[in-house]
C-alpha cells in the first residue's frame, strides 16, 4: 500500500539553494481513480500536476491557491486548486482530451486567497510556449522566484530547485553559481533519488541528509474536495429559483455530480425549495 504523498523541504546552506521534493506516487495513483483518462492526455495531466504541486511550499498557513490554464491551442481547460496543508482538487476538460501538447497558446490565471481582504490574482500570457516551460514561468513571473522544476520520468515524483537571495542565507554562500549550473552539477544525485522510487519518509530524509542537505520538514499532499449536499443545493437554488418546473420536469429529483471528485448527489424539489 502506498504511503500518503508528501512534499519535503531541504536546504543546501553552502550553495544557498532550497530543494522541495514531491513524493507523489499515491497522488498519481488516486488521480487515475478520479480521472481515468488514457494515453497522452493522462501523461500531460500527470506531469503538470507533479510539476505544480511544489508551489505549496510558498503558501503561508491558511492560504489557498488556484491555478487555471485556459489553452486555446490546443484547446483544453486545466484547474488545480490546493492549500497550505496540501488538500488538492483537479479538473481537466474536455474529458476526452488525449494530447500531450508540445507548445501552448492561451492564458494562465493564478488566484491566492488567505488572510488578506482582497485575493491576489495574476494573469500570464502563453504564446506558443514550450509546455515544459509553462510551470517555470508560473514560478518565475507570478511568484518571482528563481526556481526550476524537474519532473521524474521513472517515478511519480518531482523536484523544485530554488536559488535563494543572499539575504535569506545566514552563512557565506557561493553567489557565482547559477540555478542551472547547480542543477547540472547535481543531476546524477537527483536522478538517483528518483530511481529510488521510495515513499518511505526515513529513507528519503536520510538520502538527502547523506548528501549534505538540512531537512526542514514535510507536509502531506492529497486529494480533497469540499463539495457537499448543501453546496449543491445552494447552487441549484441560485440557478433555478424561478425555473423549478423546468429542472424537475420529468422526475421529482435530479442527480448532480461534482466535476472534481465525481461524487453524485440526489437532489429533490423540496431540497431546492428549502421545505
Keywords:
alpha+beta; 275 residues; 34% strand; 9 helices; 13 strands; Hsp33 domain; 2 domains; CBS domain Like; elongated
How would you describe this protein?
With 275 residues, this protein is α+β, with helices and mostly antiparallel strands. It has 2 domains: 6-223, Hsp33 domain (3-Layer(bab) Sandwich); 229-273, HSP33 redox switch-like (CBS domain Like). 31% of the residues lie in helices and 34% in strands. The protein has 9 helices and 13 strands. It has helices at residues 25-34, 39-52, 131-142, 179-185, 187-196, 201-210, 229-240, 244-247, 269-273; strands at residues 6-12, 17-23, 64-73, 75-83, 87-93, 103-113, 120-130, 147-151, 157-163, 214-220, 222-223, 253-257, 264-268. The protein has a 6-stranded mixed β-sheet, with helices on one face. It has a 5-stranded antiparallel β-sheet with strand order 8-9-2-1-10, with helices on both faces. A hairpin with a 3-residue loop joins strand 4 (75-83) and strand 5. It starts with 5 loop residues before the first strand and ends with a helix. The relative contact order is 0.17.
Amino acid at each position: 500500500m502506498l504511503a500518503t504523498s508528501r512534499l519535503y523541504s531541504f536546504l543546501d546552506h553552502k550553495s544557498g539553494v532550497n530543494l522541495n521534493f514531491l513524493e507523489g506516487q499515491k497522488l498519481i495513483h488516486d488521480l487515475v481513480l478520479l480521472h481515468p483518462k488514457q494515453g497522452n492526455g493522462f501523461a500531460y495531466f500527470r506531469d503538470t500536476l507533479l510539476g505544480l504541486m511544489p508551489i505549496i511550499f510558498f503558501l503561508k498557513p491558511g492560504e489557498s491557491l488556484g491555478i487555471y490554464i485556459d489553452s486555446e491551442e490546443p484547446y483544453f481547460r486545466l484547474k488545480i486548486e490546493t492549500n497550505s496543508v496540501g488538500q488538492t482538487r483537479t479538473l481537466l476538460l474536455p474529458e476526452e482530451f488525449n494530447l500531450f501538447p508540445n507548445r501552448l497558446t492561451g492564458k494562465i490565471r493564478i488566484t491566492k486567497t488567505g488572510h488578506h481582504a482582497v485575493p491576489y490574482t495574476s494573469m500570464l500570457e502563453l504564446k506558443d510556449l514550450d509546455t515544459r516551460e509553462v510551470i517555470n514561468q508560473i514560478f518565475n513571473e507570478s511568484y518571482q522566484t528563481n526556481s526550476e522544476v524537474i519532473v521524474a520520468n521513472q517515478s511519480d515524483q518531482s523536484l523544485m530547485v530554488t536559488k535563494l537571495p543572499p539575504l535569506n542565507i545566514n552563512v557565506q554562500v557561493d553567489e557565482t553559481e547559477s540555478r542551472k549550473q547547480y542543477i547540472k552539477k547535481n543531476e546524477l544525485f537527483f536522478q538517483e533519488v528518483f530511481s529510488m522510487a521510495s515513499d518511505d519518509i526515513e529513507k528519503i530524509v536520510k538520502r538527502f541528509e547523506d548528501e549534505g542537505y538540512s531537512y526542514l520538514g514535510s507536509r502531506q499532499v492529497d486529494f480533497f474536495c469540499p463539495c457537499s449536499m448543501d453546496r449543491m443545493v445552494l447552487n441549484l437554488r441560485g440557478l433555478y429559483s424561478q425555473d423549478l418546473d423546468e429542472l424537475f420536469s420529468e422526475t421529482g429529483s435530479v442527480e448532480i455530480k461534482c466535476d472534481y471528485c465525481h461524487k453524485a448527489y440526489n437532489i429533490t424539489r423540496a431540497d431546492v425549495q428549502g421545505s
